[in-house]
Amino acid sequence: MDKAVSRTPRTRIQARNREAILDAALDVFSQHGFRGATLDQIAEVAGLSKPNLLYYFPSKEAIHVRLLSGLMDSWLDPLRHLGDAGEPVDEIVAYALRKLDMARTLPRESRLFANEIVQGAPRVLDMIEGPLKTLVDDKAALIGGWAQEGRIAPVDPHHLIFSIWATTQHYADFDVQVRGILTPEGDAHFAEAAGFLTTLYTNLLTIRP
Question: Which domain, by its residues, includes 96?
């Protein structure tokens, strides 16, 4: 049998197992945090033995770092799209809605990141102080420029960005609390939240006569 052919199924199995481990770890870490999660839990959710899991990742921390590294790039993407192509208020509101949609579609990822930050960000501090800070500072300068030009109401750009994070990621990080209070049908409350946040940030940023 051709060696290249014989290696192909094994490679596909390896790729599938790695994805199964990462998906299972995302479940476990988002529920229990890094400290509360165990390799046994991850292996069980992935449907693999612990020795099999350790063939792909040497430690719990290696899995966690791999997840966070991939997550950080996705997390920065909505902010990267904040630009000067449209009207400033519309651009900022659109950014808030993109963040809200991430809370709806990627709740496990949001909780994973929140758990890491609460613990002091030991595995992503270099990314926070590096790429994330650079991007936030760049977009804050853009927003500050709009305010100076009189295109939006005066606002502290960094705290505006922080407020958008708080008002959108809340719906993922505190999902149980939100659903317990609102008892929504499915994800209906996200449409309501989108309407509220659109009004909130439009009113905050629009210059009044």
Answer: 65-205
